[in-house]
Specification:
6 helices, 87% helix
């Protein structure tokens, strides 16, 4: 009798395990659906489609030019966007260009965000140091900046004296920095002259 009871108990336990597994699968599927519903409310489904085809084109472009993956992906996205507009125009009277542009930007903006940030950072850094050179606050800081720029120019010129023509762009930049520092010193001197005249 106990063997029969144990047998039915095992069957009952297996049924409970199967039910638990089914419930877990159901919960996982519901979470998966919720995730994709949320994802596609934030990102249009066309982005995923464009990305898939872009990756396929990217693999072809990378076989030709493997050293420029970012440029290759940009070309792939732009090419597919142009094809999308073309075929959309064939099958429909009205083409929503803004939609194609927005979908393309979903891929292109993150792709180039780091590069854009680096460009903006370099531009901001250059602007800050140029302003510091042109408008020094104190005579000591103006002298210090002039000394730094002079030594940088001379050091660069000595380092590349055998290859001046090849490095002339770098030397031009150093000379421009030195000229800005001199301009800043001149403006500081003119300010001191004005204060002396006022006194």
């Amino acid at each position: 009798m106990s063997a029969i009871t144990d047998f039915f108990q095992k069957i009952q336990n297996q049924i409970l395990e199967i039910q638990t597994t089914i419930n877990q699968i159901k919960t996982s599927w519901e979470n998966f659906q919720k995730f994709w519903d949320l994802f596609f409310t934030l990102v249009p489904w066309e982005v995923l489609l464009l990305l898939i085809f872009s990756v396929i084109l990217l693999s072809i472009f990378n076989s030709v030019s493997p050293k420029t993956p970012k440029t290759n992906l940009t070309i792939a996205v732009l090419l597919l966007a142009a094809l999308w507009i073309y075929f959309w125009g064939l099958f429909s009277k009205e083409v929503t260009y803004s939609k194609v542009i927005i979908v393309s930007l979903y891929i292109l903006v993150p792709l180039h965000a780091i590069g854009l940030f680096q460009i903006l950072f370099q531009w901001g850094k250059k602007w800050y140091w140029n302003k510091k050179r042109i408008q020094p606050k104190h005579w000591e800081s103006a002298l210090h900046q002039l000394s730094l720029d002079y030594h940088q120019l001379v050091g660069n010129a000595h380092l590349n004296h055998t290859e001046i023509q090849e490095n002339r762009d770098s030397l031009y930049k150093e000379i421009e920095k030195l000229e800005l520092s001199l301009k800043g010193m001149k403006s500081l001197l003119s300010q001191t002259d004005q204060t002396n005249e006022n006194q």
